[in-house]
Amino acid sequence: MKVAERYTxxxxxxxxxxxxxxxxxxxxLYQQYSGATRSFIMSYGGSxxxxxxxxxxxxVAFIDTVKKGKYRQxxxxxxxxxSVAKHVWFNDLKKKERAGFRxxxxxxxxxxxxxxxxxxxxxxxxxxxxxxxxxxxxxxxQKVLLLFYYENLSMKEIVDHLPYENEQVVRNKKYKCLxxxxxxxxxxxxxxxxxxxxxx
Amino acid sequence: MxxxxxxxxxxxxxxxxxxxxPSRFTPEQKEEMQRLIAEDEDVARxxxxxxxxxxxxxxxxxxxxxxxxRKEWEAQSATAPEQxxxxxxxxxxxxxxxxxxxNVMRVAACALLVAGGAAIFKYVRLSSSSLYSDYYNxxxxxxxxxxxxxxxxxQAYSTKNWNxxxxxxxxxxxxxxxxxFLAGMADLELKKFDDAIAHFEQIIATNSQSHDDYFGDEAxxxxxxxxxxxxxxxxxxxxxxxxxxxxxxxxxxxVNKMSFTDLRLTQYKENK
Lengths: 200, 272
Hints:
The structure holds two protein chains of two kinds. By secondary structure, chain A is mostly helical. Helices cover about 75% and strands about 0% of the residues of chain A. The longest helix of chain A has 22 residues, at about 20-45. The radius of gyration of chain A is 19 Å and the shape is globular. Classes of the chains: A mainly alpha, B mainly alpha. At the A-B interface, helix 2, helix 3, helix 7, helix 8 and helix 10 of A face helix 1, helix 3, helix 11 and helix 13 of B.
């Protein structure tokens, strides 16, 4: 097996913040911390699939928090990840409760630290909703937007990746796709409501 | 907002997003755009929607990247043992190391099996009533006063004559939290959990009205134990959690010695 790079907490934060070599950092997070999360989720009645999904969500939330400079480094990465995983899992259970699952038994085990991370990682449910909206776009739109806004490719580089004639065609496509996505967001009553509240 | 304005806003966003990208705006045009966002509510709203859209793309991209690495990591983890068996024959020195490694792994696997078996056994065995058996301790009545001065109910309790305790409680007219508690404990000894619970709850209710704490801590602890005996861990947990958080509680030490992992596991098992 390929040996993952080893990082101290500070090196890990630095690797994620600089966005260079993000993949080895993610690999390290999985190798080092996924086991503990898996045990935790399964001890609380989750399946292996639940555990995998929760840890993925946890890693995404952690990286996003670090990239946005919101990670306060008051606790170790291990403790922070455990708190985020708890937060994600209890929120999942809450959602299941809405669908008839009984989860009140777990409420008493929510600790201060786990609730505190929620301020750092933001509204995960809203992020999930936004992600779902993006999936409603066609594949071509998703690709253009991801290549430009996530991969940071220039119009010229995108022309090399996708079957478009020239940069202007890609630019027009990107306008349309982004407007389509904002249209979907506007049509989502929950998210639109939250935004309108912010602007007032 | 017109399509032209919307596209201009997107270009402005892109220049924010990527400072190195060539901008089609002059510094004055940029300033004008900023002013519009600050002053025009429609433009501000559109600007926020665009930022949210880009945020969504970011989040989806990161998710995709993490998922891809996760898949790669899972594949590597899954193929690791196969790679061991397909390697070329060992050199003598390497072979010794490898054999040692294999033996260590075998011992580790056996230990894991034993631990796994123990965990399964423990899980199967866990129940409220098993926890009740583990955690129940009889209450020792403080007999600092001379035996001759003990009231009849205390004497009956000290001699473990549980039925006599209950009879004296029923016929006695001088009831207080102490007699209620002793009757509750006698019920608990006789495994009459409902009756015990009624006595302990009576004490808690009395204290709550009188703002007193006479036999309050004792009643709370044994109430939780009674709920365990009755196989109702959900009812026991809030009280145990409450005691666990209160260092001044008389039963703080006892409750802190309890395994909350076992308690929660039992809770999970019985709520499934």
